[in-house]
Design brief:
With 267 residues, the chain is an alpha/beta fold. It has a single domain, classed as UDP-N-acetylmuramoyl-L-alanine:D-glutamate ligase. The protein has nine helices and eleven strands. Helix 2 packs across helix 8, helix 3 runs parallel beside helix 4 and helix 8 packs across helix 9. The termini are far apart. The N terminus is likely disordered.
Length: 267
Amino acid sequence: MQASQIGSADDRRPPPPRSVLLIGGIDPRAGAGLLRDVLTAIALGTRPIAVGTAWTEQGADVHSVEARSAESLIDSVRYAVSARPSAVKIGMVPDADAAAAILVGLSSYEGPIVVDPVLASSRGGALFKGSLADLFPLLRRATLVTPNAAEAAILAGVAVRGLDDAAAAARALADRGVAAVLVKGGHLGAAPAPVTDTLLVDGAVHRLPHARVAGGDVRGTGCALATAIAVHLGRDVGLRDAVDAGTVWLGRALAAAVDLGDERHLG
């Protein structure tokens, strides 16, 4: 065998693992937010790169947000982008300055971006302070935006009480320049009816039913779903298939949920 036919040790090395850039607020208990995103990425076999936007305290009686400076956020996002992540997921953005800073930091990034527009904690209390108009440049930058029904209603300015309303809200967001919208249906209907999410992409509405997992409220489901979708987009999976794959993974994580203190977390 000729020497040229023998692969070098470098040739036989596996390709580097794909990575996902996760941008969001830090909930110290890891039930939701950036730490939940990191856990999700690891569970899906993808290397997380994390950039915090704020520290939060989200107990029953204490709720505070300590936002990071815009200057440091720009530098951190730029540095993270230099690692060439396969996808980006953006969660909690504390204010207009942070939204603008993230956009500047991502200016050279060309891959898929999923934005989960976290406006308030599931325990109550605002997580975004400022005009909603300040969020729209970031939403327009996204490959996919993943509001729940309440967030879709606030962003679109329409009531969302059912599936037709969810589709109307998604269309309203598309009219404002958002490329694709997934309105999560977990708060529409109740057991034993399935959960039906509403996906608007390329002008078409798709209703995506899936089984409702019993067991009580679990923190961080929206954070985890958006991260799972971003992970699959970063593997060159199409948008509809990435949503389906993320939903299947979330169902398994919900079925394995555990109680931690006074919270229920994904397994």
